[in-house]
Design brief:
The chain is α/β, with parallel strands linked by helices and about 280 residues long. It has 9 helices and 7 strands, in the order βαβαβαβαβαβααβαα. Strand 5, helix 5 and strand 6 form a beta-alpha-beta unit.
Length: about 280
């Protein structure tokens, strides 16, 4: 595979890692479909290379909207050689709270279903052109469940298994399916965390490492690599000891709590309609 990509589709382009990926791809000379929900941020990125970028604001869980985006982009710029499913949301979760069931549902829609709706419009054509890379941004949190973070861990764990399945389906094809598992990146999703974040990585460094790894054909990329070794060591502990260690850590803020990040398409508790 070439060292750089010429045509990329990137979801979650408004976030910290997404913006860093967009800037890196644009800087490498690629044409980029910028997919996200905050139009001003996307417009500012597109202004870096007006002739090579287009802006789209669909809900990634809406398959029809994602297919329309894909059709428009391929008509403009041709078939991409890189598709990055980076859109994701995070938030604390408490099974005892009925309102958090909506959080789980929406997180699965964005973090898991959103990857499938991102890839689906391109797989058949990539097979036909016999090249391309499909990249899913999962998380170390998908390797093992953590107290108070069940929705996010489930969505990222499901994404890892989905990518494994897709990789197996495309085995033998001249395509790459890469699973990216970041640890802690300095982004809005981690800004409200109230616990230690070992190996905290800047999104610009993560973006460079991600693209370099995909270009080399790597199927599993951990950012930074040392956090993967730490996670593997912790996973060797007996369940009871592992869980006891994690129970002593502060929980990730739930939707509506101080430090929580908003989840698109999910109203804040104060906005929830009251039944009369």
């Amino acid at each position: 595979m070439a060292a750089t990509f010429q045509n990329a589709v990137l979801t979650g382009a408004c976030g910290g890692l997404g913006q860093a990926l967009a800037r890196e791809l644009i800087g490498q000379g690629a044409s980029v479909a910028l997919v996200g929900l905050h139009r001003p941020t996307l417009d500012a990125l597109a202004a870096l290379a007006p002739g090579r970028c287009a802006v789209y604001t669909p809900d990634v869980a809406d398959s029809a909207a994602m297919q329309a985006m894909a059709a428009d982009w391929t008509a403009r710029a041709g078939m991409p050689d890189l598709v990055i499913a980076n859109a994701g949301v995070a938030g604390g979760y408490d099974t005892a709270q009925a309102s958090d069931l909506a959080v789980l549902r929406r997180m699965l829609e964005i973090n898991l279903l959103g990857a499938a709706t991102t890839f689906q419009p391109f797989v058949k054509a990539m097979r036909a052109q016999r090249r391309g890379a499909l990249v899913g941004v999962a998380s170390i949190a998908g390797w093992r469940g953590m107290p108070g973070n069940g929705a996010y861990c489930a969505s990222k764990g499901g994404l890892i298994r989905y990518l494994e399945s897709l990789r197996a389906e495309l085995r033998g094809e001249p395509m790459v399916v890469s699973t990216v598992s970041p640890g802690y990146l300095r982004t809005a999703l981690t800004a409200g965390n109230r616990f230690a974040m070992p190996g905290l990585m800047e999104p610009e460094a993560a973006a460079r490492a991600l693209l370099a790894g995909v270009a080399r054909g790597r199927t599993h990329i951990v950012l930074p690599a040392r956090i993967g070794w730490l996670a593997r060591l912790l996973n060797l502990l007996p369940d009871a000891l592992h869980d006891r260690l994690l129970l002593g850590q502060p929980r990730k803020p739930r939707v509506g709590e101080a430090g929580a990040t908003a989840i698109p398409g999910l109203p804040l508790p104060a906005e929830t309609p009251i039944k009369k």
